[in-house]
Amino acid sequence: MHILFLTDNFPPEVNAPASRTFEHCREWVKAGHRVTVITGAPNFPRGKVFEGYRNQIWQRETMAGIDVIRVWTYITANEGFAKRTLDFLSYMVTSFLASLFVRRVDVIAGTSPQFFTVCAAYASSLFKRVPWVFELRDIWPESIRVVGAMKQSKMLDLLEKVELFLYRKAGAIVSVTHAFRTSLMRRGVNGEKIHVVTNGVDISRFSPREKDTELLHQHGLQGKFVAGYIGTHGLAHALDTLLDAAKTLKTAPDGDRFRILLLGDGANKGALCQRAQAEDLDNVIFVDSVSKDQVVRYWSVLDVSIIHLKKDELFTTVIPSKLFECMGMAIPVLHGVEGESAGIVEREDVGLLFEPENPEALVNGLRRLADDPELFARFKANGPLGAKRYDRSSLASEMLEILNTQAGKL
Fold it and tell me: 12 forms bridges with which residues in the sheet?
């Protein structure tokens, strides 16, 4: 079977969509299938093309047996709704045009969070007369409303109509959460065509390891209890809550034993850095995005991982993929996300929950994990055991069955 996969994020980018797509496609190649990925020049989240690449009409490479075609897009940093939309639209057009030159395709998949990629997958399926699958990673454009990136408007209403149209036209929908499936069914989408394949972890890469002593010395973390946030610094993540917690700790009698590390980039990174500097929050350490291999080194220096999103009903349907990486690395989590993902934390017994956007609750959780070695050890031990139930290779096989079924409908 020849699978054509459209995604605007792909390695060497290190965000969740890039990792999921690469790890799935790699497993499909191992299973004996041909996989072609159409993506752009790697640039997320800074909007600068990675070294060794150029933003040109057509580039081709092979990664882990995957045939990767990179097309030109309008490149901008991960900030500003209008410019990001131009980025999405340009990829929609160029990826569709590139797909016309990919021959003998059996099934097409397009992945969100933004659905312009999925528009290209749908259009390509019409021209090639092959089935297509919608991989749903976010309820978009509803998430735009929640973070306030765009005011309520007729444009958002139109985008939602396009969204529902694409759900109806897809041969199958692969949702990353059960809550997304429920939401779509409530909006009238046929539940029989919606399949859930959650995010997961490559347990061969994300496994327990000793703390990286070089990084401990580099960032002055020796002897500190290190809590870290690793991921996109966007509006949806409300990371000012972490700075509020750091401010509380800075003046607390026991505060010097804690450090908060934030690794990544995004629309809110600059504002966070400016605030930390203005308030002299020297217990907060900012690190720019690093490669996938380097990310594992930074995971290793954390005693606790903080996972956080805005307090909004929409985010109760989200399962942050970093949760599974923490589990694989045996890092207890402080989980500031309500809903389905909180259920996983409790069920797998891998961390503590705290109310989103509540810095006092975050500080209390930090102290509890630092002061209760038995609880801390229990969470560490349970992480890798739970991660086995979210092994990426098994999840890739589940999605492959869905694609194979659709290809059989030719």
Answer: none
Residue that is written with structure tokens 């996300």 in the block: 337
Is 397 in the same domain as 383? no
Cα separation, 244 vs 240, in Å, equals: 6
Torsion of CA 364, 360, 266, 303, to 10 degrees: -10
- At 81 the pLDDT is 67
**Full strand arrangement of the beta sheet holding 284-287:** 284-287, 258-263, 225-230, 304-308, 333-336, 351-353
Q: What is the per-residue pLDDT for 82?
A: 74
Spatial distance between the Cα atoms of 222 and 236, rounded to a whole number of angstroms:
32
Residues 235 and 160 in one domain: no
Angle between the 269-278 and 240-250 helix axes, to the nearest 10 degrees?
20
- Residue 148 CA to residue 49 CA, distance in Å, equals 28
Domain of residue 18, residue span: 2-200+391-407
What is the pLDDT confidence band of residue 347, given thresholds at 50, 70 and 90? very high
Residues 293 and 230 in one domain: yes
- Tokens found for residue 408: 């059989």
For residue range 76-85, what is the model confidence (pLDDT) as tens digits?
A: 776 666 777 8
Tens of pLDDT, residue by residue over 195-208, are 999 999 999 899 99
Is the domain of 190 the same as that of 253? no
Q: What total of structural domains would you count in the chain? A: 2
Helix (H, G, I), strand (E, B) or coil at 162: helix
Q: How many helices (H) and strands (E) does the chain have?
A: 15, 14
CATH code, 238? 3.40.50.2000
- Are both 44 and 164 inside the same structural domain? yes
Q: Is 100 helix (H, G, I), strand (E, B) or coil?
A: coil
Task: Please state, as a whole number, how many other Cβ atoms lie within 10 Å of the Cβ of residue 22.
Answer: 26
Could you tell me the pTM of the whole model? 0.87
Domain membership of residue 206 (yes or no) is: no
